[in-house]
Amino acid sequence: VCEMCGYSGSINTFFSRTKRFCSMSCSRSYSSNSKKFSILARLQGRPPSKKAKVLNKVNKAPPPPVATEGYKALLRYEGFEHDSSHDFWCSLVLGEVNPIGWCAMTSKLLVPPQDVKQTIPDWKAYLMLKLVGANTLPVDFYSKVKPDALPLPLGRIPLLRLPHATVTLRSSQLTESMKPSVKVGTRVEVVDPKHVSRTRVANVAAVVGGRLQLIYADQSDSPDNTISDFWCHTWSPLVHPIGWSFRVGHAIKAPDERTSGVRLGADPDAECAPQPRFVYMDGGFFEKGMKLEAIDPLNLGSICVATVQKVLLDGYLMVAVDGSTSDNTSDWFCYHASSHSILPINFCKKNNIPLTVPNGYDCRTFSWEEYLEKTRAKAAPARLFYTDYPGHGFCPNMKLEAVDLMEPRLVCVATVRRCVGRLLLIHFDGWEDEFDQWVDYESPDIYPAGWCELMGYQLQPP
């Protein structure tokens, strides 16, 4: 097998005493391009011009990626030139592709596609012309993308701009992803979906790609013969270490008297929910009664008129939607002051987003100035909100996989409907617009196309 072009043949027909190359041309090309351009050197990186071999019963000529989308590449076999009729999608992370030279190193036969033999009579010369000096996958490619590493949430993966409108990733970022920081059996505190103003203790039952299946410690309110659980990401603002509620002053439903007084650090394995951004309180901070706009935690496609109901420690706030039907505190929701789900007044007006107003008001004629005067309240100063926008690369109509946060065990095929600063309006393909959800571009609940396949997690089709 030629070490330069991968051609297989009889050893008696190979060139030189070492029989490493099929021709003098391959021998010279290998020497002149050693380490820098040789196929076996496997240059780092893999933009759409890189070459790769695809595993098949008979290894066919290496196709260059036509495009990369998420964890997948659209490939075209060498020899088809501008003919796209045989293009096919292939996973980049499940062992289906190999660097140029893999066949030579593993004594596999490399042959042209059957349809190409008739149009390219001198296949060896054609292959040498195409592959000499071509880039290929790095030799340690699969060690960088192995599934036992935890891929970064989509917003934390730098995006490549491609001709097709689908979110993609940069493979080097996968090596920077962390191992799951929360182990099975770890106890955590998580928001109670039936009573969002409080948390409850849960145990981690499973970890899939950084997503946690949590089993509530107290199952007394579960239907007979069922076990209540909840899914969220390790980095979700909904999950906290044991003792967090006690420390910041948040309500918690404890399964017994002992748990309600557990201090922070009682479970050192619960390294979940990275520390939120530090907030500076000099010169004023949020106060009880201040008005703002906020994503409704019970209807994530809606941005509502809201009020700060309580200021907790460490920069956390209890926020309630104005005009909510609850006559107690059960629909208050905890946001950190640095959260991008709370917004200054008139944010919706400036960005042409429908604002959900309290009962008795018309969204078409609603005026914040009149509302503040009527309720004798003041708006939260705009300087208190974190509205930084470094740019993210997302565009409308990009495809991705997204968690349905109202049913968080489901990961669905989705489309970016709108981009407003840091916020993305996610539309679930095949569903009505009323199910759309606003998320921050760094949300741990959006993933590149192919994430579910990589993790072995069920993807919900349109």
Automatic annotation (TrEMBL):
Organism of this sequence: Tetraodon nigroviridis
GO BP annotations listed: chromatin organization; negative regulation of DNA-templated transcription
Example GO molecular function: zinc ion binding
Protein name: (spotted green pufferfish) hypothetical protein
Compartments (UniProt record): Nucleus
Domain of life: Eukaryota
Annotated Pfam families: MBT (PF02820), zf-FCS_1 (PF21319)
Gene Ontology annotations for the cellular component aspect, listed alphabetically: nucleus
Signal peptide per UniProt: none
Keywords of this entry: Chromatin regulator, Metal-binding, Nucleus, Repeat, Transcription, Transcription regulation, Zinc, Zinc-finger
Domain FCS-type: 1-28
SUPFAM superfamilies, alphabetized: Tudor/PWWP/MBT
Positions of MBT repeats: 1-113, 121-255, 259-358, 366-462
